[in-house]
Amino acid sequence: MAKNKIVQLQTTSSELSKEPIENEIKLLKLSPQNKCSKSYYENRSLGLYVGIQASNNSVNITTSHGSDEFVTIVEGTVSIKNNINGKAETANKGESFVIPKGYDYQWQQSTDLITFQLTYQAPIESLSRSEKYENVFFIDEKNETPWQNTSDGYKKKVEYQSQNKNFTAGVWQGGHFKTGLIAFPYNEFILVKSGCLICTDAQESKIVVNIGEALFVPQGANCSWESQGEISLHFVQVKAD
What we know:
Blueprint: E1 5-8, H1 13-16, E2 21-22, E3 26-30, E4 38-43, E5 48-55, E6 59-64, E7 68-75, E8 78-82, E9 88-91, E10 96-99, E11 104-109, E12 113-120, E13 137-139, E14 148-149, E15 155-161, E16 167-174, E17 182-183, E18 187-201, E19 206-209, E20 214-217, E21 222-238
Parallel strand pairs: 1-3, 2-4
Antiparallel strand pairs: 3-20, 4-5, 5-12, 6-11, 7-10, 7-12, 8-9, 8-11, 10-13, 14-15, 15-16, 16-21, 17-21, 18-19, 18-20, 18-21
């Protein structure tokens, strides 16, 4: 496969039969129309996995989470119950959240469920008692997390960061913008919540990402960006040590 090329993933049988891209510099689009479980990207040395998960039956799982995981509910509803304090949180269609590493919980779903997922398995590190989490972290434009001004004149709020600070999730918002070619210094997952985002690679191949669609940009990709009007994004950035 050619490097640095934008790839729009399709739910054809030939596409679904392919192995996940491993350590290759490609832009990957995830769409709600992709209704089959599929791993699209793997970087095993970094512990990074990106894909779509589809489940069409009732699921009730109790587990202690071994990774930091970003999830967007594309279809369905799930309840996440903390096994320590008994608190249950419900995530509905269109909502994003992070299950932090070390979280002890019960995953309950009684309906069909489709999710975008990014999993980051950091090198083994212990969790002190003070770092045990009592809830999942919802990525939400309207919560009380303060906004920060960015160096390019827009704004963001960071709503979760891993203990080693290599995994960061939050919200980014801005007006119309257009950039030149940028070499990405980290891996980034981008979910469009409002507006439209256009990404163009070094070979001038374009990919348009609309509301409810997501784009994964691996570290080292070269691309330019343009938005159409006001835009709001949920993002995850994963950096190497």
